[in-house]
């Protein structure tokens, strides 16, 4: 039995090896280049291993990319987008999972359609909408607020879908018992239901946050001022249309921008998979 | 379960569910609805390069677009791009999901690694791949040379013949995690005892795969295909970052050309026409998705 498992492990890893290699390659490249001194990055032929680790790249990158500003902007739009998404999705998902009402199916189909629409298809309209809304003597173009609202609008369908499929697994009997004990429906929702729903909300929040954190086309369209650019834009601007690119700094920046998110995501991957398949099988 | 509870409550508080869904409905209707009608309007208008509407244009924007060879090529290339990425992703994901379903040493680690690209921004991934494919200093050429598979350097991104297939490959790698997830969900819904029954009847593993696993997985494969098609069709960052549709417009797909028409070439009316053409295609697939969903209770 043990031998069989060992044997199976060997061929499983062999089958997965090509995919694992190409998946890990970008991480290896990031790490290798980010830690190389500049002259080794442009040495021919290039080598995987640097002769010594050059941590100075991260320091230089921080000011070259203006990483702090990008980080702050990414945090603002991602947290803002997540909070707004959850604020509108939690009540909707509660209604979808707990209450029968006319138009429920229509609303569900409407959500499905919005999920099919990528913001890039509407990007021209979104830009013109932002340009037509005036705040003081400026418009919503080049504001983090516009990006935040657009993120929420395009994330909410997925959030409602995922939350609702989790919510249906929380037994309604608990709330019903609270009604019998004299609690109002709203009170039962807040005191009994919400504490049980926290894990589902956390997982959905993290997925939404990661989606906003990684978003590129909307930010590219809406944001112009270097003081408001998000991290992906800051990094892409170091590469796009540049004659000479400081690749060791660029790789240090991508490493720092992606690895923390990837680690959190990988750690939570089991719960995400659960939630997704719950949603898919519903 | 909730049907019985809700049924009796419906008459008591008919407004409550609508109040609960109202904020999300308003947000989606305004932020998605307004731009949609704006695009509809622009597509039949004569629009200056600064976005001023100068009257009606009838269907001339559409005529211009459909006569534009860059658009025609981008349309065909979008077909290749979408089909290539989705078919490749599926072909790779089915065996991966089958392997990941059974217990083996280090399964958790393997699964975590395979899921990693999911969490990475496509723009960032594209930058890393762009650097890896660098002709002189990229690690892909360097490694191929070191393994003796090639001499000299391939200028991967300089020509569409090499750049575009590599962009498709990158598209596949980033689509695999989601697809494997859906398929794993499907596999976990197949009861184990049908395999025992098949084994007793003398079925070979190969037969089990074709006659049992694949048909049972069918609805999940359908959903994965439709969702991937829509997603890949709309995917912008990989091609935009790696080649910007170039060299000489030879790697444009519809989304990158749409962006260029809107914000670089200053042809908003035609951009709106491209948007609308793409919306029609996406809605076609959405309709297909809805039909699959309704027909198949598991999906």
β-strand amount of chain A: under 5%
Q: What is the CA-based Rg of chain B, rounded? A: 24 Å
Largest sheet of chain B: 2 strands, antiparallel
Biggest chain-to-chain interface with counts: A-B, 108 and 112 residues
| Count of domain modules of chain B | 1
CATH superfamily of chain A: MetI-like
Which structural category fits the helices and strands of chain A?
mainly alpha
Shape of chain A: globular
Write the layout of secondary structure elements.
The complex is a heterodimer of chains A (282) and B (299).
Chain A: H1 2-34, H2 38-41, H3 56-98, H4 104-116, H5 123-132, E1 134-135, E2 138-139, H6 144-167, H7 173-180, H8 185-214, H9 217-222, H10 231-239, H11 247-281
Antiparallel strand pairs in A: 1-2
Helix pairs in contact in A: 1-11, 3-6, 3-8, 3-10, 3-11, 4-6, 6-8, 6-11, 7-8, 8-11, 10-11
Chain B: H1 2-9, H2 16-43, E1 45-47, E2 53-56, H3 60-67, H4 69-101, H5 107-115, H6 122-132, H7 139-146, H8 160-188, H9 193-200, H10 205-233, H11 237-242, H12 254-263, H13 268-295
Antiparallel strand pairs in B: 1-2
Helix pairs in contact in B: 2-13, 3-13, 4-8, 4-10, 8-10, 10-13, 12-13
Distinctive features:
heterodimer; A: 282 residues; mainly alpha; MetI-like fold; 2 strands; B: 299 residues; two-stranded antiparallel sheet; disordered N terminus
């Amino acid at each position: 039995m043990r031998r069989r498992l060992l044997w199976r492990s060997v061929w499983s890893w062999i089958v997965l090896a090509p995919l694992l290699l190409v998946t890990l390659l970008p991480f290896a490249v990031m790490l290798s280049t980010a830690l190389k001194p500049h002259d080794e990055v442009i040495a021919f032929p290039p080598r995987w291993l640097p002769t010594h680790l050059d941590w100075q790249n991260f320091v230089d990158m921080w000011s070259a990319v203006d990483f702090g500003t990008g980080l702050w902007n990414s945090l603002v739009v991602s947290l803002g987008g997540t909070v707004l998404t959850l604020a509108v999705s939690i009540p909707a998902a509660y209604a979808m999972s707990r209450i029968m009402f006319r138009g429920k199916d229509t609303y569900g189909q409407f959500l499905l359609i919005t999920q099919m629409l990528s913001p890039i298809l509407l990007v021209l309209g979104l830009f013109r909408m932002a340009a037509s809304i005036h705040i003081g003597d400026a418009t919503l173009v080049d504001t983090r607020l516009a990006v935040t609202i657009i993120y929420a609008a395009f994330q909410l369908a997925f959030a409602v879908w995922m939350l609702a499929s989790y919510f249906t697994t929380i037994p309604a009997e608990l709330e019903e018992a609270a009604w019998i004990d004299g609690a109002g429906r709203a009170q039962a929702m807040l005191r009994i239901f919400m504490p049980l729903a926290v894990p589902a909300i956390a997982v959905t929040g993290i997925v939404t946050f990661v989606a906003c954190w990684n978003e590129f086309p909307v930010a590219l369209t809406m944001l112009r001022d270097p003081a408001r650019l998000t991290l992906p834009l800051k990094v892409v601007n170091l590469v796009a249309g540049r004659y000479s690119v400081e690749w060791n700094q660029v790789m240090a920046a991508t490493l720092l921008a992606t690895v923390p998110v990837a680690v959190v995501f990988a750690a939570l991957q089991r719960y995400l998979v659960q939630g997704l398949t719950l949603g898919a099988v519903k | 379960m909730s049907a019985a509870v809700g049924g009796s409550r419906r008459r008591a508080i008919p407004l409550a569910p609508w109040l609960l869904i109202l904020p999300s409905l308003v947000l989606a209707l305004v932020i998605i609805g307004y731009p949609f009608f704006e695009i509809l309007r622009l597509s039949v208008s004569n629009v200056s390069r600064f976005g001023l509407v100068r009257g009606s244009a009838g269907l001339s924007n559409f005529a211009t677009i459909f006569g534009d060879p860059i658009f025609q090529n981008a349309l065909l290339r979008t077909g290749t791009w979408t089909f290539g990425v989705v078919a490749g992703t599926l072909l790779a994901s089915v065996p991966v999901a089958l392997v990941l379903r059974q217990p083996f040493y280090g399964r958790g680690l393997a699964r975590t690694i395979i899921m990693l690209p999911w969490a990475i921004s496509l723009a960032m991934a594209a930058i890393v791949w762009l650097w890896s494919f660098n002709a002189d200093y990229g690690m892909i050429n360097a490694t191929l040379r070191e393994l003796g598979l090639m001499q000299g350097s391939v200028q991967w991104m300089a020509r569409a013949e090499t750049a575009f297939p590599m962009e498709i490959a990158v598209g596949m790698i980033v689509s695999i995690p989601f697809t494997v997830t859906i398929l794993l969900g499907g596999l976990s819904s197949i009861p184990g005892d049908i395999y025992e029954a098949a084994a007793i009847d003398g079925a070979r593993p190969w037969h089990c795969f074709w006659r049992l696993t694949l048909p049972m997985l069918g609805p999940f494969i359908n959903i994965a295909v439709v969702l991937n098609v829509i997603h890949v069709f709309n995917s912008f960052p990989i091609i935009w970052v790696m080649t910007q549709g170039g060299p000489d417009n030879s790697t444009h797909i519809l989304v990158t050309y749409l962006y260029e028409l809107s914000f670089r070439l200053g042809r908003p009316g035609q951009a709106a026409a491209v948007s609308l053409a793409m919306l029609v295609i996406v809605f076609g697939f959405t309709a297909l998705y809805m039909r699959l969903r309704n027909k198949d209770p598991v999906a």
